[in-house]
Amino acid sequence: MTKRPGLLALVLLAALGMPAAVAAQTPQPGGILNLRLREDLPQGFAVHESPTISTMWPAMPCLSNLVIFDPLKTTHTTETVIPELAERWSWQDNYRNLVFFLRANVKWHDGKPFTARDVAYTIDMLREAPDAPRLRVNPRRDWYSNVQAVEVVDPRTVVVHLKRPQPSLLLLLASGFTPIYAAHLPAASYRTGCIGTGPFKVKEWRRGEFLEYVKNPEYFVPGRPYLDGLRYVVIRERATATAALQTRQVDVAFPGDTTKGMADQLRVAAPKLRITEVGTAVVDHMLVNATRPPFDNPKVRVAVSRAIDRAALIEAVYHGGAAIGGAMAPRPHGVWGLLDKDLKALVWSGRGTEEKARARALLAEAGYGPGNPLKLELQTRGLPAFLDLASFVATELKRVGVEVGVRQVETSTWEPQKIRKEFVFGVDRTSMEPDDPDATFYEHYACNSPRSYSGYCDPEITRLIEAQSQELDRARRLALVHAIQRRLAEAASNPVLCWRLDYFAIWPHVQNLVPHHSLYGWGRLQDVWLDRALIARP
């Protein structure tokens, strides 16, 4: 039996209700934390039916995972995974069986006891086991394709049996996208409400306006949460949201929504704000439906990819607040990214003018030119930041003779539309969470994955994805991961444009809210507290 290093210390800390890192100051209980939402919860609290932080971030305080990334650590790795609903875990049979030993006396918000049955119900639902209930959409189904069975040994012990070794499963389970649902409730109930085991209980959700939480007095971690409640206010316009932050109407920015340019303005307008540059695990990319003309022709896919000057995009749209990379987050914002020499060898990495000339030549080979221009409708999500990105891409494509019109689609329509592949061309932002190849490759590039929006399928890439997943030697796994990224760039399967950075802004009176290098795992807020002395200062 193989145990995680340092597990005993982590279990003792969890049993005492302490995080793995302890703040220097003594936390002060009480108070309401005010947060901003950029839009209403698109899928309600149904995290398992949603691919967006607009659902996950406000839903996290209601829910719990088996394990979670330490809220006070900035990086998501195996070493920063800590217990949550599980007191401890144990790998067995060379990473083929993962045993979870669950906390006792945990209750759902409706008073029902939490047991191993809830864990089995959730994982079976996610992997689409034969007798499990079906989700309306299941974006991360392929995360669990290696699960053979989920065994309930007793009310506090559950075993996840795998078909082959997969050490990364633990990181997938620690993601904010992997809460445990209540087995005694239909999964559809999370679209309109939330019965969880988390530190806060829903008080009121007024659609399009606000979401309020109150402290869960029966939360399983003694002394948590510190706050009396949370209030999320929907503020769609960025200028209005920035003004609300400057005037302390909200205490923190929405994660991932503060650009470098906005941060520079905030430093002047509100110099006491703490602003932290941090990775997001969010990649800007084009959507090209490889199953429909014209993108069933690889020359057209490569042409539109080569037409976009990535460096110019980063300066024009993000004022330098983004990074060039492949399918995995680039260094230092991720650990699996391509080396600089490999990035410089990718098909779109030449000078802007040179790449546009190559793009025109490829379009000509595909039958498009001045007498027969390629005409495209570019779709994107109905948020201001997405329009900025789409407008830049449209302008770049017009420079190589492509006629492009931009159309925005509301989030509630856009996400299901992508899964059904009811589009030809678009630009999007997609989470690659957690920073592990299994999460990225299975979810976004494996054949037949619900979130492989392009429909591109290469059996050889799928074989390499399987090989890297079960490779226990890190150096060999890294080589496979780099090879996969190079092949994806060559195929122009949803071409990567850039990896966005966030300039997370927070008032100093908010303590223990630490931004992570990924947006998708630090919104539980059970350790956050408000320093009243700092609140009182102008």
3D structure, described in words:
The chain is an alpha+beta fold. It has 2 domains: 7-20 and 27-242 and 519-536, Periplasmic binding protein-like II (D-Maltodextrin-Binding Protein, domain 2, 3-Layer(aba) Sandwich); 279-500, Dipeptide-binding Protein, domain 3. The protein contains 16 helices and 18 strands. It has helices at residues 7-15, 53-59, 116-127, 169-174, 238-246, 260-269, 298-306, 310-318, 340-343, 352-365, 384-398, 411-419, 437-444, 459-470, 474-491, 532-536, and strands at 32-37, 67-69, 81-83, 86-92, 97-102, 147-154, 157-162, 200-206, 210-215, 229-234, 274-288, 322-323, 375-381, 403-409, 425-431, 496-506, 510-511, 529-530. The chain has a 4-stranded mixed sheet with strand order 1-10-9-8, with no helix packed on it. A hairpin with a 2-residue loop joins strand 6 and strand 7. The chain is globular and about 70 Å long.
Q: Ranges with pLDDT <50 over ≥5 residues?
A: 1-23
Largest sheet: 4 strands, mixed
User: How many individual helices?
Assistant: 16
- How confident overall, as mean pLDDT? 92
Shape: globular
- Assembly state: single chain
Report the β-strand fraction as a percent range. Answer: 15-25%
- Name of the level-1 CATH class of the largest domain: Alpha Beta
Number of strands: 18
By CATH, the topology of the largest domain is D-Maltodextrin-Binding Protein, domain 2
N/C terminus separation = 56 Å
Query: How many distinct folded domains?
Result: 2
Question: Spatial order of the strands in the main sheet?
Answer: 1-10-9-8
Q: What level of helicity do the residues show?
A: 25-40%
Q: Could you give me the name of the CATH homologous superfamily of the largest domain?
A: Periplasmic binding protein-like II
CATH architecture of the largest domain: 3-Layer(aba) Sandwich
Radius of gyration from the alpha-carbon trace, in angstroms? 23 Å
Helix/strand class: alpha+beta
